[in-house]
Structure formats: structure tokens, C-alpha cells
Amino acid sequence: MKRFEENRNFMKSGFMEDILSDQKKQLPQPPLQKPYDNDSEIIDLPEINREIISKKDIHNCIADRKSHREYTTEALTIDELSYLLWATQGVKEIRGDNYATVRPVASAGARHPFETYLAIQNVHGLKEGIYRYLSLEHKLLFLYEEKNIKDKITDGTLGQKFAGSAAVNFIWSCIPYRGEWRYDKRSHKVMLIDAGHVCHALYIACEVLGLGTCAIAAYDQNLMDKMIDVDGEDEFVIYMAPVSKI
């Protein structure tokens, strides 16, 4: 139908058109990771610990994967959080002269246009507040303390109370120019596909650890952008997922 035509065309390939991207113009590429102040509070994450894996059969992990909306009040461990961050956006290798990163998830052109923010309520050893994952260093950047995460996440997810009750909410932002630099106007479709790769990796990693999650695409854009302090244009929230014990 006519009212769907534009969005349906957006879902199609578009890669047959020859476009002079900023990469082809030899313009400098955006940084692989959003910069931060050197005097910021940085928290070391533990190395990946395979001993915390509770389900080692990959077939069962795939077969049992599902969304969970009922959580316990038990805290996550820092080892579990470290594993989830590595599984979704950890950097295994940097290629070229800071040209691209290799991660556990696929990304068109290895652009990885996302930053991972965390609204933490109940993780051992971490105060309640908003954090950002530094994927290149596998560390956390503390942004600010927040004692009202439950209500703000519930409001930000349009009344989804289970999200507000979670130990931690993964909040992925998109920095679109990372993809636009290479693929120009064709980049936006593949960046949305990439977001799906990241969230599915979280589902499988949660299944591996015996945790629960649920993808959230219904949220208040302005409230969630404000929560992680981004401008809503050059960086904005693209996807969310609460994680807790089940």
C-alpha cells in the first residue's frame, strides 16, 4: 500500500547505486570509540571467566533462547556483566591503523556504529547509576549516579515495569556517521540489521549464564537520549534490553 512504500523501499538493498561516500572521498573516518575525558572515573572489568558458564551445550542455548520479563531481586556479579559486555561489543582485534575492529558480533564493513550504555541498579561492587562500556579497553566509564533508575527506565520504556525492575539495562546508542562514512545513505538499513546482531548475542550470552533478557524497541526517544546524555542527532538510543537473574 502507498503509505508503506517508502519504508518498504528502505528495507531493500540499495547497493547497486554508485555513491561517492566520505570514505571514497578519502575523508578521515570517525573514531572507533567515542572519546572521553582523561580525568573520568574508569572501572576495570575482570577478564572473561569461562567458569561462570552454566549451560555449555550450544544447541540447548539456541533452543532455549526466549524473552524473559519476570526477574528475581538477586544481584548480577561483575564477572557476569563483564562476560555480557564482551559477548555483545568486546573487541577481539584492531585491524589496520585503527581502521576497524573485530568483535564477537557481525557488523557491515566492520563499522560497529554503537556505544553501550548501562543503567545499573543491582550489580555487586558497582553503585547505582549510568555507565558507558569502553570496548577498546574492556572497562567501564562511570557517567553519573542515579538513585531513581527504576522509575526513569519504566517511564522511558513507555510503562514496561519489568524493564525498570532489572538489575541492569543495556542501552545501545548509534553514532550513525560511523556507517555513513563508508556506506553513505545505504548505511542506515545495515546499521539497524547490526543492532539485531548485538541484541541476539546478548540473548545467547544470557542463556549461557542462566540470566534473562528481553529486547525493547518501544521507548521514549527523548527520555532515553536524555538519560544517557546524547544529542539525539549525531548519537541517539537505537535499542534496549534489561538483564537480570531469573
UniProtKB/TrEMBL annotation:
InterPro entries: Bacteriocin_Proc_Enz, Nitroreductase, Nitroreductase-like, SagB-type_dehydrogenase. GO terms for molecular function: oxidoreductase activity. Residues 62-243 form the Nitroreductase domain. It comes from the Bacteria. Coiled coil: none annotated. This is SagB/ThcOx family dehydrogenase. It comes from Tissierella pigra.
